[in-house]
Write a structure and sequence with these properties.
The chain is an alpha+beta fold and 111 residues long. It has two domains: 43 residues, no CATH class; 53 residues, no CATH class. It has six helices and five strands; from the N terminus they run H-E-E-H-H-E-H-E-H-H-E. The strands form two sheets. It has a three-stranded antiparallel beta sheet. Strands 1-2 form a two-stranded antiparallel sheet. The protein is elongated, with a radius of gyration of 18 Å. This is C2H2-type domain-containing protein. It comes from Trichoderma citrinoviride.
Amino acid sequence: HIDRDVEPYVCISEECQEPLRFFAHLDDWENHMQTMHTPNWAQKIHTTTWYCDIDTCNENTGGKKGFADKGAFIQHLSIAHPKKLTKPQISAKARRNRTTKARDSLTCPLC
């Protein structure tokens, strides 16, 4: 009874055609995720990564330094490279310096 009222399960895909879709039962949520977002949904949701392509970062990390969210990337650019980039340049990099990569099948998208 409480689960029907509360609907504790929510679609977590950023591309869902029904934003904030809630479900009363785990089975209903799993069915939605598999049918509306493919059986491989766990590998395909929230896969955008922002990357710093400034030479000093690449030298220190041995490759492009990655960030899971745009805010963290902007914060990095503002703090790590304050003399190299203006605010408009930071905004442009936040739009341009992103990529998607499928998650490993054994990695939980919630953790």
